[in-house]
Amino acid sequence: MIAFSLTNTKEFMSHLLLADTFDHFSFIEGEIVTFNTFRIDGFLQKEFFDTGTDLPEYSPWKNLRDFCFSLIKGKRTPLSFRFIFSLSRKNIGRLIARNAPALDPDSVQGLYLNIHFDGSRLSCVTGTSFKTFTMDKTLEHAWDEMVEKFLRQKHIEFEKL
User: Fold this and answer.
1) Which InterPro entries does the entry mention (predicted)?
2) Can you tell me whether residue 114 is helix, strand or coil?
3) Angle, alpha carbons 149-10-160 (nearest 5°)
4) pLDDT tens readout for residues 10-50
5) What is the side-by-side order of every strand in the sheet holding 26-33?
6) What is this structure's pTM?
7) Which helix (H) or strand (E) holds 94?
8) Which residue(s) pair with 3 in the sheet?
9) Which of 24, 98, 108, 88 lies closest to 61 in space, CA to CA?
10) Which of 6, 31, 29 is nearest to 150 (CA)?
């Protein structure tokens, strides 16, 4: 786990809400506090869709980005918000193959990116969850490094906390 302070809020919000920077992440859940509190569960309700459609467990961020933007945009800054993203199953498999090939991808619950705005500060914290206990931190460290590299590649300003 590693924490980042996102130092240029306006720039980051543009990446989050206006660009496709995070579109390939799975959206696990979120909460936006403005004039009301809006809680969004990213779990896909598969019964809603046609049968036989192959769907992921969670919505990709790109399917919720515009909706979240509609709740946040305006003259007033939100009181707070938090979003939990996860690397897609396919990309978790790729990260494991490159960095921890002995690890079974099915043993990984998720590789998470927790984004939080408290009204003045914006932060991002990585997280790793396994279905069973493991002492091996190889994947956790690879995920932390990948997120830092991702932020740098996207020119998102940050400080490690």
Assistant:
1) DUF5721 (IPR043779)
2) strand
3) 35
4) 999 999 999 999 999 999 999 999 999 999 999 999 888 87
5) 37-41, 26-33, 80-86, 108-117, 122-130, 3-6, 158-160
6) 0.91
7) helix 89-99
8) 125
9) 24
10) 6
